[in-house]
Known about the structure:
Blueprint: H1 11-34, H2 41-70, H3 81-111, E1 117-118, E2 122-123, H4 132-167, H5 171-176
Antiparallel strand pairs: 1-2
Amino acid sequence: xxxxxxxxxxxxxxxxxxxxxxxxxxxxxxxxxxxxxxxxxxxxxxxxxxxxxxxxxxxxxxxxxxxxxxxxxxxxxxxxxxxxxxxxxxxxxxxxxxxxxxxxxxxxxxxxxxxxxxxxxxxxxxxxxxxxxxxxxxxxxxxxxxxxxxxxxxxxxxxxxxxxxxxxxxxxxxxxxx
Length: 178
């Protein structure tokens, strides 16, 4: 089943969820490693790949949000309204951060005067003027956003595991198997 229902997530929602999750976690780890790599050939190639995957995540998130807005969301399985509300807030923060992080990365790169190529196929048009001081500010925002994103991913995973092992409901299984 491709579409969500009131009781389960469809294949498209699940694929988008897990693909974006894998890319985002890989990007957080990879971005951390980029900061310790010495300048040179490998780091330059890794940065190009990092930028490309960031753009892919941004585009997938646009698709995911569009899919979410046009499909029913399965009902909450939790019985505590305040926890359901917090879960909704965590999802909103995840969506915002998964859009903000690549966008800030793109802008940061462009303010430093570096182009953003997407999978070697095309170059994004420049959205901002070159400004190293703005680039430094955006670098800080990119770093803080990465930490926040990592924290919200941990919270999200912990909540999913709590649902599965403590509450023993189908929250996690709905995202794994539908």
